[in-house]
Specification:
28% of the residues lie in helices and 27% in strands. By secondary structure, it is α+β, with helices and mostly antiparallel strands. The radius of gyration is 17 Å and the shape is globular. The structure holds 2-amino-4-trifluoromethylsulfanyl-butyric acid and cobalt (II) ion.
Amino acid sequence: MIFVKTEEEIEKIKVSCAIVRDCLSFVGSRIREGMTTRQVDELVYDFIKSSGAEPSCLGYCGYPASACVSVNETVVHGIPGDRILQEGDIVSVDLCAYKDGFHGDGARTFCIGEVSEEKKKLVRVTEECFFKAIGNLKAGTPLYDIGYAVQQHAEANGFSVIRSYTGHGIGREMHEDPSVPNFGKKGTGPRLRAGTVLCIEPMIALGTWKVRVLPDGWTAVTTDGKAAAHYENTLVIREDGVELLTL
Ligand code: MF3
Ligand code: CO
């Protein structure tokens, strides 16, 4: 069931999303070589709490942290810990804030110091995939046009699209219908209605799109060990386009 939100609900989602947006820029200004992924998580926890919100991820299905901090070959759901960030790493930070009954969700991939041209291109193309996906998005667009646009752009650049994780609706729950895959056939899927709130989150890999989950039950890594990047924003579908809430 795809909910259409009222303007009152959207106003509340906007508040949570503004915290996510500001937290992502705060992390971007602080993240650097020598930090552990746990220290990144602490920045996120403190920022969200001091904004009067709750980190939605903490305790979600038993997830033990406030952010997902995914380095290089980790695609998503990297559990923060003792791993030390090194020059040349790319680090995806994904976080959600919950306030006044509604969630916001966003992710960025940061470069630590000088990174290879290949990884730089991967990070850039992953962001571009998001903007390609929203280029023609508005009320009436078939859902799978989103994934079609992401896949076209990723594959045209020689990269692959992660299949086993998707974007999603968001609101009172962090994950609501519909699931928003990053691949698909143009012109298919339900037509999106104005007032639908979605998280669109391309996850793009340098090599294979195949992933496996480590024994911790969360950390998803590429099976070839090559890097992946992640970029996510929450947005509202409007009659004439989209309204970005975490940017
Ligand atoms: N923020 C993630 C998403 O984009 C969800 C993280 S899963 C959690 O859907 F367990 F860490 F919360
Ligand atoms: Co999400």
